[in-house]
Design brief:
Elements: E1 3-7, E2 10-12, E3 18-25, E4 34-39, E5 46-51, E6 58-60, E7 68-73, E8 78-83, E9 92-98, E10 108-112
Parallel strand pairs: 2-10
Antiparallel strand pairs: 1-3, 3-8, 4-5, 4-9, 5-6, 7-8, 9-10
């Protein structure tokens, strides 16, 4: 069964950038659509962006359109979330997920603060 591991989170100032990675093992990532989600304590996990198996279709939450870019490199079995122009309200734990499944990564913390 596929396992997902996120990395790339950290502390960044408002207006800064981070790139999150979601590395898959145990299976070929190319057979799965992948989603990036985020969760703030006390709130429901929300979809940030998702990408189709081949990478040709992407969708974004309105709150991140124009700032975040989801991508994937199936040769590296990895999906990415490039986050630019970060705002304090982007602070959350970010998770990747095999869409329409119960397969999630462990999450990576992103904190946007001056």
């Amino acid at each position: 069964q596929v396992q997902l591991v996120e990395s790339g989170g950290g502390l960044v100032q408002p207006g800064g950038s981070l790139r999150l990675s979601c590395a898959a093992s145990g299976s070929d990532l190319r057979i799965y659509a992948i989603g990036w989600y985020r969760q703030i304590p006390g709130k429901q996990r929300e979809l940030v962006a998702d990408i189709s198996r081949g990478g040709g279709r992407t969708n974004y939450a309105d709150s991140v359109k124009g700032r975040f870019t989801i991508s994937r490199d199936n040769a590296k079995n990895t999906a990415y979330l490039q986050m630019n122009s970060l705002k304090p309200e982007d602070t959350a734990v970010y998770y990747c997920r095999v869409q329409q499944s119960s397969i999630w990564g462990q999450g990576t913390q992103v904190t946007v603060s001056s």
